């Protein structure tokens, strides 16, 4: 199978079956490990780019096609999307090659009767680019953001209402930029400088993190799991926003820490390292599959003061009541902070799902807050930027439970200080901050 045919299969799985793009891409690349690095890079770029810009691509296609995108056969719809992405956004791909390969694929997969249609639409796009009339930002800012940055109308409206037009635009711009992988150095095994040298020897592109000394940004690698530095447990993939949970927690030697929704374990593992081989971390999640992911990371990194186990955060564990010095509650959320890495989220999420998730978060908090000792700390976090799931839930929690917000100002890098960090919480917004979108609140039990 050619790289384009493999890509088409991935896109069909993502768009027609609502499967997560990063999961389908990784699974498929593992299946075709014989492919050259260049082909794998092409597949990844074409898949991720097509998913990221799906609304924009559909808008372009609809300007040229008599049959609207939503009326097309799934195969043809995705074939046109990925072909238009190559024409519009991949300078190294000749326009004629994108068109010709699409026609060949249509014939090969039994759509010869539609190959002329595919050829006609793509040739028209190449020859007459002026036919696409984009919304004007000054006349209709919301529509402009939706079409330009490929975002659903409801999400554009929500972000403008919550953060203002400028911040919303910055957020959507940041989501379309090529984000490097951020890693946290395992300082129990290696120093940051030593890890940087080792990665460079492995032909990995390395730069320093933006806010934290233990963070590095990497790129240009093939398979992460093939790197000796990864296999030997010298680092963990973790965004700086997620690392900040451990940074503001105030972890002390000997603390007992519970992480209730932990998989794949980034925050639990960071907590174990901050304990400096003392204390204990209980890293919990709902399913055996998720818990096994945590165990794999524990074994690879070599921490001795952390255990993973299956536990439902909605079911009260009597043995844990008032035992935890620190409780980490990084709860299921709408994930809007990570659409730069998981772009399909913006197409699959809805306002109704957001409301359901906010309610679930309150249910979980109502149970797990009981694990915090009197005087202990609860860290509430999500990887979303939706206020209903973040600050609104914190305010609700404080109304119903005997906790108070505690300043995190002395524990944060100076570049992240704000009025809210004095109060005890921070909302990170891509485009405004050089991180994923993330919310952290530090609450101390009275």
Kindly describe this structure.
47% of the residues lie in helices and 15% in strands. With 446 residues, it is an alpha/beta fold. The protein folds into 4 domains: 3-131, N-utilizing Substance Protein B Homolog, Chain A; 141-175, no CATH class; 181-237, Sun protein, domain 3 (Alpha-Beta Plaits), CATH 3.30.70.1170; 240-445, Vaccinia Virus protein VP39 (Rossmann fold, 3-Layer(aba) Sandwich), CATH 3.40.50. The strands form 2 sheets. Strands 5, 6, 7, 8, 9, 10, 11 and 12 form an 8-stranded mixed sheet that branches. A 4-stranded antiparallel sheet has the order 2-3-1-4, covered by helices on one side. Strand 2 (205-208) and strand 3 (215-219) form a beta hairpin.
């Amino acid at each position: 199978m050619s790289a384009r045919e493999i890509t088409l299969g991935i896109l069909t799985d993502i768009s027609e079956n609502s499967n997560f793009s990063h999961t389908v891409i990784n699974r498929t690349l593992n299946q075709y490990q014989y492919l050259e690095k260049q082909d794998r890079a092409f597949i990844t770029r074409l898949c991720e780019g097509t998913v990221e810009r799906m609304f924009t691509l559909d808008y372009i296609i609809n300007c040229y096609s008599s049959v609207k995108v939503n009326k097309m056969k799934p195969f043809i719809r995705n074939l046109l999307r990925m072909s238009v992405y190559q024409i519009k956004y991949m300078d190294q791909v000749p326009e004629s090659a994108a068109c010709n390969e699409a026609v060949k694929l249509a014939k090969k997969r039994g759509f010869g009767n539609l190959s002329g249609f595919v050829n006609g639409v793509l040739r028209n796009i190449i020859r007459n680019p002026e036919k696409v009339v984009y919304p004007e930002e000054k006349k209709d800012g919301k529509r402009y953001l939706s079409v330009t940055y490929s975002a659903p109308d409801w999400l554009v409206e929500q972000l403008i209402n919550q953060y203002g037009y400028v911040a919303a635009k910055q957020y959507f711009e940041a989501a379309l930029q090529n984000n490097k992988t951020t890693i946290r150095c395992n300082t129990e095994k290696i120093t940051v400088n030593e890890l940087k040298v080792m990665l460079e020897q492995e032909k990995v592109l390395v730069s320093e993190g933006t806010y934290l000394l233990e963070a590095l940004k990497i790129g240009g690698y093939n398979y992460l799991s093939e790197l000796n530095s990864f296999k030997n447990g010298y680092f963990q993939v973790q965004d700086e926003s997620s690392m900040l949970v451990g940074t503001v927690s105030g972890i002390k030697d000997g603390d007992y820490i519970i992480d209730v929704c932990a998989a794949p374990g980034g925050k639990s593992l960071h907590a174990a390292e901050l304990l400096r081989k003392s204390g204990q971390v209980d890293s919990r999640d709902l399913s055996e599959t998720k818990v096994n992911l945590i165990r794999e990371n524990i074994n690879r990194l070599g921490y001795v003061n952390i255990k993973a186990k299956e536990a439902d955060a909605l079911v009260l564990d009597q043995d844990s009541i008032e035992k935890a010095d620190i409780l980490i509650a990084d709860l299921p959320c709408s994930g809007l902070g990570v659409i730069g890495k998981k772009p399909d989220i913006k197409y699959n999420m809805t306002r109704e799902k957001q409301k359901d998730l906010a309610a679930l978060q309150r249910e979980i908090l109502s149970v797990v807050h009981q694990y915090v000792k009197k005087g202990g700390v609860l860290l509430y976090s999500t990887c979303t930027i939706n206020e209903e799931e973040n600050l609104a839930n914190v305010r609700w929690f404080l109304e119903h439970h005997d906790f108070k917000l505690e300043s995190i100002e002395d524990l944060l890098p100076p570049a992240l200080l704000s009025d809210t960090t004095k109060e005890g919480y921070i909302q990170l917004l891509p485009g405004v901050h050089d991180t994923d979108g993330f919310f952290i609140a530090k609450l101390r039990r009275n």
